[in-house]
Amino acid sequence: MSEIVHNGPTDATQARGQAYSGDPDGDADAPAVQHLPLDAWHRARGGRMVEFAGYHMPVQYEGVMAEHLWTRENAGLFDVSHMGQLLFTGEGGADPARALEALLPGDIAGLGEGRMRYSLLLSEGGGILDDLMVTRRADGIYMVVNGATKYDDLGWLRENLADDITINHMDEQALLALQGPKAVDALQRLVPGVADLTFMKAAAFDWNGIPLWISRSGYTGEDGFEISVPASAAATLADALTEQPEVKPIGLGARDSLRLEAGLPLYGHDLDEDTTPVMADLGFALSKRRREEANFMGASRILLEREQGPVVKRVGLLVEGRQPVREGAAVVDGDGNEVGKVTSGGHSPSLNGPIAMAYVPAAMAAPGAAVTLAQRGKVHQAIVTPMPFVPHRYHR
Length: 396
Known about the structure:
Residues 39-288 form the GCVT N-terminal domain. Residues 1-32 are annotated as: Disordered. Substrate binds at residue 226. One of its GO terms (molecular function) is transaminase activity. With 396 residues, this protein is α+β, with helices and mostly antiparallel strands. Among the domains are: 3-84 and 156-260, 2-Layer Sandwich (Gyrase A, domain 2); 311-396, Elongation Factor Tu (Ef-tu), domain 3. The protein has 10 helices and 21 strands. A 6-stranded mixed sheet has the order 1-10-6-9-8-7. A 6-stranded mixed sheet has the order 12-13-14-11-5-15. It is globular and about 65 Å long.
């Protein structure tokens, strides 16, 4: 089993990492609700805090609709410090990229320095344990995993990677996302040179003596950046960013509506261990070389499903009328039998109407197909539509 190293405080934070659900050597789950490094910062600015992924997080400041539209037109600052930041290194010449390829279906070994890739942590049966971002840095392979699954991810990675691969859980780092068409204007004033990054590229920067790791990426469909910063400096950076005229703090509510419009799945809702990459319409994450080698977890099932087609498939839905359908609504056939399920749904501020993601039988997955939904005794009609619902505006 691989070793996990923690760089954060050696008291509660380290204990949290040593005793998480899924850790074969741990003896307790992570604490129920934790605080972000910017907890007091959010509360001082009127953030309404809710529990999410085991953390107190701001769901909104001035309102989801206003924050959503502000981000689409200007720049929004999101605190995503609940997510797990991991750094993989090898001892004695061991290659962490090659080691990770046993668990991920992407071409990790082929990443150049500063290049990043979306990938999936897979179970032995080909189910998705998490979706994540992987980047090659000069000091190792950097990975960002979902906050709700990070302790289980650490347990799975530790159990399935060899002893010569060290996992550094960077729990001393905060993570901020600056998203929107004017994000580059605001960040370039503070950190000259970031405008040279293009989508899915990353680099190290120095801001007033504070080391930053910045990628041009995000979860809104807009241009933007994700910034790893020492937790001790997170408030200082957040202050500097929100002092820029283009930037406002944005909560979880708008983050969810933005990612839904962008057609981006949310783990634990649109993806889970019973979902394969083919069912989830994430075939782009299966790189050509890895498909040919077929040596990643779950490869036999996934590649057979890719060849024969999945039984169900994730699709986008434009819902008729004004009433949004929510997660859990049933997709029904002509006889009223449940044949699929809505996994994300809500009002689209940009389109001013209801949209959703659902898993439907493959025969119903073609764009333009009519779908019937049942929610709380009411029937809704919807049309399968290509995603994203709102075009991506990444800076390529």
